[in-house]
Fold this sequence. Notes:
The protein has helices spanning about 85-100, 110-120, 140-145, 155-165, 175-180, 185-205, 220-235, 245-250, 270-280, 300-320; strands spanning about 10-15, 25-30, 35-40, 60-65, 105-110, 125-135, 260-265, 285-290. By secondary structure, it is an alpha/beta fold. It folds into 2 domains: about 10-140 and about 245-320, Alpha/Beta hydrolase fold, catalytic domain (Rossmann fold, 3-Layer(aba) Sandwich); about 140-240, no CATH class. It has an 8-stranded mixed beta sheet with strand order 1-2-4-3-5-6-7-8, with helices on both faces. The relative contact order is 0.15. The mean pLDDT is about 95.
Amino acid sequence: MRVLFPPLEPVSTWCLETGGVHRVYVEDCGSRDGTPVVFLHGGPGSGCKPYHRQFFDPARYRVILFDQRGCGRSTPAGATAENTTADLIADMEAIRERLGIERWVLFGGSWGATLALLYAQRHPGRVLAMILRGTFLARRQDVDWFFRDGVSRIFPDAWETFTAAFPAVADGDYVAAACEEMRSGDPARRTACARAWSDWTGKVVTYLLPESPATEPTPEQTERMRNEVSVETHYAQHRYFIEENQVLRDVPRLPRVPTVIVHGRRDLTCTLEASWTLHRALPHSRLVILREAGHLANEPAMIDALVSATEQLHEALQCP
């Protein structure tokens, strides 16, 4: 079974000036002569982690990571103004152009997979290949599965705790309710909402892991949680700034490049149906279903599949 490559420090870091309020944090890692790959983190709202660099052989790949607008080390943290899917795609193009990269591999999981597909549909000529994990298609049914009627049937206890934080909701639109709370001028209301949202999403995403004792978050952790939920609710309320079923509708725009889709059968955050449907729409793609894996990228079976995919892809791209 393959494991992550050893810890890796960036060759350089810098911030992309977007021309607006946002400064986007970028890392350039690995070999400058290697196959270029851009890592697209999930969320929206999270950010890149040090271990994200380790899915790639640094002798073979030039790894570009960036924290999306309002996320991670990008500033201003948690900002939702000038923060749409089109803005993120424009940032990717600006990063690619600044680095002088002609074409690159797209590596994304969950929301990162959505972003990879949307970028590839907008800029097909800039894509060498795609590796997608736990595909999220951002359809209404995908959002409803998580925040209306779906996984709530598997975690009714956690769902009851989550919904109790929004007693005034009558139509079941907890995404809109959470977004309104996160816009509140009352820090206590924002914190309570962020905690309820994070507890619910965290329960589902990490359900395969051993439960950890509850601890009181530090002020820094609380601030980071509020920022992440602010961006996440912003995108969810605006349906990720795309039309209904846009990703699948525009599949014919995708380049015919090597495409590997990896999905855990036990993923209750983004269900296997999404990757299966995408795979059926992309006959040249390869779908890897992991029987024991869930949603997280750092589960052993998922690491094995993703590192294997990067290694196999590199070999395929070197063939004449």
